[in-house]
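Researcher: Please translate sequence to structure tokens.
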Amino acid sequence: MTPRLNAVSARVYRVTIPLEQPFVLAYKNVSEVENIVLRLQSADGIVGWGCASPESKVTGETPDMTAQSLIRDIIPALLSAPELPLPLLLDVAEQSAPGAPAACAAADVALHDMAARAARVPLIALLGGPARDSIPTCMTISISEVDKTLDDARRFAARGFRFLKIKCGLDPELDIARVKAVRAALPGATLHLDANQGYTREQALLVARALEHDIVFLEQPGPKEDLDLLQALCAESPVPIMADEPVLTPDHALAVFRRGAPLVCVKLVKSGGVAPAVRLCELAASLGRGVMIGCMEELPVSMAAAACVALSQPAVRYADLDGHLDMIQDFAHGGIFVNNGDAAVSDAHGSGVEVNEQALAPHLAFEA
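Model: Translation complete:
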């Protein structure tokens, strides 16, 4: 049981972080990302850190919207709340900003970090402890030509990664060629494709049939709002279909499960944090469906929390926990550790993340 907590001060930071190399998705190119970082402090001086990387194509939130939801809604609600057990404080945050899952995720992660530090236990202990000590995480390969895809795949394999996500969705024939090249070069690798809503029904089936023996699943092939298409693909595709962008809440998960989806991708920024992500995993487990814990381009502050969910929940079959690995930053380190392609978490109190407050200081956007 966690001790009763309250937050007496808060800070919001906005940091723009360059990536090691530009990244191409079906709907945009990315060379830098903005993270919204939240610092909460209790009356006892215990600090909890949270973070979110909002994406309008996923939750409808921009960084401006996430920062404003924290500043206008969530922080005032938390600072005015009495000492409460963690679940009730999480309710305060969630109820103050409905429809703002990225902002709620930052608050949820900070409150879990604070509660675990107050209880002097690792964050994963609040989730019932680990179901496994580590989990293979994929590394993500941007949309590119065959040669560049192959170079990236070999580079990641040399670092010990056995699970690779290949972004796709712009050119089905090229996507097939890229996967075939990687499969030939790395016959033992586990591969999956992520179309980020880029395919039509015909394109998705063309790719799935061509790669039936090469990929373990095809992630979000079509538009997130087209559940009829999702249902058709689940019925006709020879490879499993994973739903990502349509799944934010348990109701969303039920909707895609009813359409036949065997797999869903759960992200803290979509669900609203650790506690809602755990509920989604428990729902999937109760229905015999599988989960991949995914991420955005996020600092270790939230990546460590996501890894705790991945390691604690039996429904999790896959992990995509590479969001911090290509960032050029000195704001936060630790908490999550990736060695030879396997992700594990710290046994330190809280999330185990070490935050460089001096580096963050110039990026302060709000203080209360």
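Researcher: Any highlights?
Model: The chain has two domains: 7-120+357-367, 126-355.
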